Amino acid sequence: MKKHNFYAGPSILPQYTIKNTADAILDFAGTGLSLLEISHRSKEFQAVMDEAQALVKELLDVPAGYEVVFVGGGASLQFCMVPFNLLNTKAAYLKTGVWAKKAQKEAAMFGEVVEVASSEDKTFCYIPKGFEAKVPTDVDYFHYTSNNTIYGTEIRKDPDVKVPLVADMSSDIFSRPIDVSKYSIIYGGAQKNLAPAGVTFAIVKQDALGKVNRPIPTMLDYRTHIDGGSMFNTPPCVSVYGALQTLKWLKAEGGVKEMERRAIVKSDKLYSEIDRNPFFKATVEDHEDRSRMNICFVMNDNYKELENDFMEFAKSQGMIGIKGHRSVGGFRASTYNALPEESVDALIAAMKEFEKKH
Amino acid sequence: MKKHNFYAGPSILPQYTIKNTADAILDFAGTGLSLLEISHRSKEFQAVMDEAQALVKELLDVPAGYEVVFVGGGASLQFCMVPFNLLNTKAAYLKTGVWAKKAQKEAAMFGEVVEVASSEDKTFCYIPKGFEAKVPTDVDYFHYTSNNTIYGTEIRKDPDVKVPLVADMSSDIFSRPIDVSKYSIIYGGAQKNLAPAGVTFAIVKQDALGKVNRPIPTMLDYRTHIDGGSMFNTPPCVSVYGALQTLKWLKAEGGVKEMERRAIVKSDKLYSEIDRNPFFKATVEDHEDRSRMNICFVMNDNYKELENDFMEFAKSQGMIGIKGHRSVGGFRASTYNALPEESVDALIAAMKEFEKKH
């Protein structure tokens, strides 16, 4: 039976990425060698790295003065790299989920942290209103998480603030156009809309760097990776190769505008069914706050005892990875760029079928 | 023509690793999904991580009280993680090459660094004699690099020192038995004898941790990764999968004792030819210091002008990656575990043929 991959991450990638990566592991760029065993200093791999960086710039319309770096360690390592590089005395954080909270915790090791707003009071099921106006003007930067994978909330508007802006866009990068010029740093683990796990991207405004007084360990200094073209040390070659394939696919499919159109179609469909079907309800009520990438829902109040039944039924229909995070419960359908509309249709059909049967 | 992969890293891996990784990218563990798009929290991937850690322990005979972690970021990130976790006031470093020097430089950000000995005076072409006796007894740890990839020197004896011992074994791990009980931390980038680039291993003695006073960023604290079973955040899944394949291959081939036997055969053969052939000379004179993993040689004094000729000739015979590092010049043949003896034979044949032609 056709499998529908709703994993939250690592998650579905285009067949183009999967096939080309498998092929390159058998024969990379006609070298007769595997992508797994080729020097990162070879001209063939250098071309991969260069093209991947260039395509990120092209697809996101990155202005001059910014560099794209690929490093290891995940977004979790960025949680300390950001304050290492930017925090002199004080930073502001928006607490909209577990990852936002973890980022904030790391920053507190480096200076004072102002919590601009939090939605922890209601299991992070909403985005605090009017947070932009609450960002102090005397902080070194303001950090927020654009999409909260676990809770299914998303901030799609590039915030208007008067201080340097930093965003963790791990789980919604490339799902819509963004105004990069508003940001000092945009970073993210690549294992959602971009690449196999193992590589992290950062889009860094160069003149935001070099303003802190502390010594920065070499590998945690963005300048190391900018100066080294993300080749200061051996990069995660397979993941970067996978990123390049997805970027090529993205471009061929119409870029981030087309991804936004598809994300709207897919998420509107699924939220509509959740709202209509008496057996289910969305965990995020405010339509404006609802993520287009991670759609969280639970059984409606009268049908709580049917949760396992629906889980089993959905599995029997080919749905994979729809179990909600333990802190939210219920279900989560992650609808990243590579998820075809037919998978959303299949999930909706399963929900309708379940409604009919009960 | 058959290619002979002498790259210094990323470098040749067993065909078993290459084939199984390519297969898993098309269908991972019978899930019908790609290894690139499966959750690291799936039971199928959890089994990969668990088995990889267990096999490292088994193959290196790791005693109780140690844990194996897999993280991202490369050995270069370990250069700061080691002092972050272990350096209170003073550490001792042995400077035997560029990587040793980089590790030492990072430590200096955290406390006093005693340089026990250095071979920088002669482009790191030897291992300083008697360094063990020179390690101060009042340091928090002594750090050395067991194999110097660029210069082709190697310290194969586990040093006897009276302080906690830390080794970067990036490029010779799994090439011989080691006495892990002598070490507090053994770490390395995995992209030589273990895995595709993107994952770093560390074998950590648990009671060596928790003795420093500074706050440690979460991702740089070994305890985070020990407690999280290397799943605190999303691991570099493909590289860990590749590591598991190589570990299985290693075990099936006879383990590290057999790898040592093969390394002796291969390196003895090649050094013998270098020493015999009047056109070439080894850059490391002392036989005891010569690496079994990276065999560096240059044209002999009377034949300097033939360097390009030999390079072109060797390439025409299928040799790949034998150009020496720019700081040493000449040639470097990396003879890692997965390099078959026939590749060494082919290189030797090319050297003999070159001798005959000139």
Strand and helix map with partners:
The structure is a homodimer of 358-residue chains.
Chain A: E1 4-5, H1 15-26, H2 43-59, E2 66-71, H3 74-86, E3 90-95, H4 98-107, E4 112-118, E5 142-145, E6 147-148, E7 153-154, E8 165-168, E9 185-189, E10 200-205, H5 222-227, H6 237-253, H7 255-276, E11 280-282, E12 294-299, H8 307-316, E13 319-320, E14 331-334, H9 341-357
Parallel strand pairs in A: 1-13, 3-4, 3-5, 5-8, 8-9
Antiparallel strand pairs in A: 2-10, 6-7, 9-10, 11-12, 12-14
Helix pairs in contact in A: 1-6, 2-6, 3-4, 6-7, 7-9
Structure, described:
2 copies of one chain form a homodimer. Chain A is α/β, with parallel strands linked by helices and 358 residues long. Chain A has 9 helices and 14 strands. Chain A has helices at residues 15-26, 43-59, 74-86, 98-107, 222-227, 237-253, 255-276, 307-316, 341-357, and strands at residues 4-5, 66-71, 90-95, 112-118, 142-145, 147-148, 153-154, 165-168, 185-189, 200-205, 280-282, 294-299, 319-320, 331-334. A 7-stranded mixed beta sheet of chain A has the order 2-10-9-8-5-3-4, with helices on both faces. In chain A, helix 4 (98-107) links the parallel strand 3 (90-95) and strand 4. The longest helix of chain A is centred in the last third of the chain and has 22 residues, at 255-276. Chains A and B meet through helix 1, helix 3, helix 4 and helix 6 of A and helix 1, helix 3, helix 4 and helix 7 of B.
